[in-house]
Amino acid sequence: MASLDVESVQAFVAIADLQSFTRAAEALGTTQGAISVKLRRLEERIGQRLIERTPRHVRLSAHGAVFLDRARDFLAAHEAALSALASTTPRRFGLGIAAHVAGPELPTLLAQLNAYDPGLRIEVRLENSRTLLDAFDRGELDACIIRREDDRRDGEVLGPEHFGWFAAPNFEHRQGEPLRLAALSPSCGVRDIATRALDEAGIAWTEVFLGGGSSAVTAAVSAGLAMAVFSCRLAPPGTVEIGERFRLPRLPSSEIVLHSTLTDPKSRAALRTLAAAFREHRAMAG
């Protein structure tokens, strides 16, 4: 009977979850070539092709789909065996995610992180980017995924972020009246982007809805009470981009950045998995 190599099975599961050899390599902290070698070694031991790969797609074969759950069970059993000999104290992982960054993929990403390392006690905090970065600098968070703030250049770039002016299709703005805005809070960096662009263009504005969280701002915009700036990939369903219609200024792009102080190998490996999955979901959304 063929024996299974843990690293080869980890490579297979990462490829299956992220649907990308490149993202799997990032998640496991290795190279794409090494990932390919590990997968080939596993397929040779099993005697079946597990992954179908074309220039545009990576997907499970029929045998791979059958094997995936067993592979997860194998890795979980391996982790349980190691954990039985290690400290039983769960490791805290304080993670901050900016409200303007978190999308509908967030539950899936956190589930993947939890499945990758059940020994992590994940504590998630959703705030604006500036608040989270301050908390990270004070040592209150182990890692944060935020929109880049000011001229600070540290952190790992996860991808670009493009913004637009969004409102309900029936949103009305009378000529000569201030543009009605909704925003998260006075300290929100995305609010700063919007108001600075309007001020530089000489367009009068007034805030008619401030604070209450992303869902509250989304509700105000969807109801037609105001317009707001959103990431183009996270614009609320049913809203439309109104920049051209009202001759609003173009908004500068930003970057999504990961900051981390994690040092132990297992936690850093889990964080790499989260970062790779985040990039993959952004690529799929784009």
TrEMBL record:
SUPFAM superfamilies: Periplasmic binding protein-like II, Winged helix' DNA-binding domain. The keyword Magnesium does not apply. InterPro entries: LTTR, LysR_HTH_N, LysR_subst-bd, WH-like_DNA-bd_sf, WH_DNA-bd_sf. Residues 4-61 form the HTH lysR-type domain. It holds the Pfam family HTH_1. Keywords: DNA-binding, Transcription, Transcription regulation. One of its GO terms (molecular function) is DNA binding. It comes from the Bacteria. Belongs to the LysR transcriptional regulatory family. This is DNA-binding transcriptional regulator, LysR family. It comes from Pseudoxanthobacter soli DSM 19599. The lineage of its organism: Bacteria, Pseudomonadati, Pseudomonadota, Alphaproteobacteria, Hyphomicrobiales.
